[in-house]
Amino acid sequence: MLTLSKYVLLDLLRNRSVLIYTVVLGILSISLLSLGDQSSKGLLSLLNITLLFVPVITMLFATIYFFNSLEFIELLLCQPVKRSRVLLSEYFGMTLSLSASYIAGVGIPLFLKVSGAISWMLVITGVLLTFIFTALSLLVFVLFRDKTKGIGAAIVIALFFTLLFDGLVMAFIFSFSDYPIDKPLLGMMAFNPVDLARVLMLLQLDVAVLMGYSGALFKKFLGSATGSIFSIACMIGWIVVPLILSVRIFRHKDL
Amino acid sequence: MMEISQLTKSFGRFRALDQISLSLQEGQAVSLLGPNGSGKTTLIKSILGMVIPETGTISIDKQIVKRDWNYRSRIGYMPQIGRYPDNMTIEQVINMITEIRKDKVTPDRELYEGFELDRIRKKKMRTLSGGTRQKVSACLAFLFSPDIYILDEPTAGLDPVANEILKKKIVKECARGKLTLITSHVLNDLEGLTSHIIYLQDGKVRFYQSVETLQELTGETRLNGVVAHLMQNDLKNKENIPC
Questions:
Q1: Cβ–Cβ contacts within 10 Å for residue A238, how many?
Q2: Mind listing the pLDDT tens digit for each residue in A47-106?
Q3: Strand, helix or coil at B199?
Q4: A193-205 and A213-251 are packed helices; what angle lies between their axes, rounded to 10 degrees?
Q5: DSSP alpha helix (H) spans, chain A
Q6: Among A43, A140, A141, A236, whose CB has the most other CB atoms within 10 angstroms?
């Protein structure tokens, strides 16, 4: 698996898109962090950028890359290697290089300007989101035969989790506002990795109460530590479940 | 050596392979013939495990091939259209496959040298012509001296010199007791190469016979004539040829 991942990584390093992604993230974080004196404001803006950009770009880029490397996968599959190994090395090559870009683009400026637990948390959140959305792209890749349809599905999924889901939650809150819906709402949060990431960060920032319903709920019901553990566990679930599903589907896929 | 029994595969409603049973021995050079869409490539891909058949089994040396991917180290495969990662050079592709296969054999570089790939080994796969890609594919198929060769349209797109080199290599490997499975529409290229012919139509085996038997049966000497004769006459009353 290491051998295969190595070749995927080498191929990605030759790809300019990853480099551009790193540079864009770097420029954004440097400019946001040097805007004001208060680092917490810069951190919040950076969080919002992470929550919007990372899912969409990871999802799109990974899906396109997976579909483009179909040749590579076919070449490998006539060799004596296990199917799941080929797929997982594609995944890890991809997700590791995107995580590296995130760490280089956001992590390094953060550690230089604002060090501390909060910076660590933001980097971990971003990396977790990268892992999650690369896993979702892998699932899209094994489910769709057609590249165009696959990319369409990737866009829909990314937008669903970054924008649409919140709208649905709002609609849910409005229509059931007469009932005690706090607990079901907590459950709903677990179904959106972006919300989980937001909660994870906000619990660290002490502005949880100011930043919307979900943050306040988590703080109230779970407290900081349990809340963080809960959301990290859910996010790991969001990585593992799509991966297992992809491997299972890929085992029976005709190429 | 290779035993295929009751192999069936459909894509949606279309039956690509319909209850195929074949038994192939070492030393045979088998030509897989049939019209377009008759299931040749699907059969090859099922042997390679790239297409998962619904029912039926494939076994190599009595060992049933299913989830056990190790058997692929005994197969050298040359695809119809060699598709390679664009950004890799010829050298990198060959090194990568060598690294993955972990075969302990010394690589058979006869074709690599014959095709003079050494001169262009730094070229990116993207920039190669169709024929050169074919050369790389052929090279990879023969690199590890496997027991079974599966060549899908090996000669399409090769220039006459390369064609001759490849044909000589195939004959040589057959003489060493390897099993070779070739598909081709260019029957002239198969002349003097094949020992047996499998004819597929609509996912079924129409006949599987040695070339000598077929020559006797049809009274033709050239492969072209034999196949043309069979396609025109005997397919109408299929029962004539024993399988």
A1: 24
A2: 888 888 899 999 999 999 999 888 888 888 888 888 898 999 999 999 999 999 999 999
A3: strand
A4: 140
A5: 2-13, 16-33, 39-68, 70-77, 83-102, 108-113, 117-143, 147-159, 165-175, 182-189, 193-205, 213-251
A6: A141
Task: State the pLDDT confidence band at A234, using cuts at 50, 70 and 90.
Answer: very high
Q: Are A72 and B85 in contact (CB under 8 A)?
A: yes
Distance between CA B51 and CA B76 in Å, rounded?
17
Contact B77 A7 (CB under 8 A): no
Coil/strand/helix, residue B243: coil
Chain B neighbors of A74, CB-CB under 8 A: 50, 79, 83
pTM: 0.86
Q: In a 3-state reduction of DSSP, which class is residue B85?
A: coil
Hey, which residues does B150 pair with through a beta bridge? B77, B181
Confidence band (pLDDT; 50, 70, 90) for B2?
confident
The CATH classification number of B2-240 equals 3.40.50.300
For the purposes of burial, counting CB atoms within 10 Å of the CB of B127, is it exposed (0-12), middle (13-18) or buried (19 or more)?
exposed
* B187 to chain A, closest Cα gap in Å: 26
Rounded Cα–Cα distance for residues A57 and A55 (Å): 6
| Residue A152 structure tokens | 């369409």
Interface of B with A (CB under 8 A): 11, 45, 48-52, 69-73, 75, 77, 79, 83-85, 87-88, 93, 96-97, 99-101
Q: Which residues of chain A make contact with B97, given a CB cutoff of 8 A?
A: 75, 79
- φ/ψ of A212, rounded to 5, equals 95, 175
Average pLDDT, chain A: 86
Among B77, B93, B96, whose Cβ lies nearest the Cβ of A78? B77
d(CA A91, CA A85): 10
CA A254 to chain centre: 29
Q: Give the pLDDT confidence of B50-87 residue by residue, as tens digits.
A: 888 888 888 888 888 877 788 888 889 998 888 888 87
Q: What is the C-alpha separation between B199 and B207, in angstroms, rounded?
A: 5
* Strand, helix or coil for residue B225: helix
Q: How far apart are CA A106 and CA B35, in angstroms?
A: 58
Amino acid at A172: F
**Number of Cβ pairs < 8 A linking chain A and chain B:** 62
Any bridge partners for residue B64, and if so which?
B59
Strand positions, DSSP E, chain B: 2-11, 14-24, 29-33, 55-60, 63-65, 75-78, 148-152, 179-183, 196-201, 204-210
Alpha carbon distance A71, A74 (integer Å): 5
Domain assignments of chain B as residue spans, ordered by start: 2-240
> Among partner residues A11, A72, A252, which is closest to B52 by beta-carbon distance?
A252
A64 three-class SS: helix
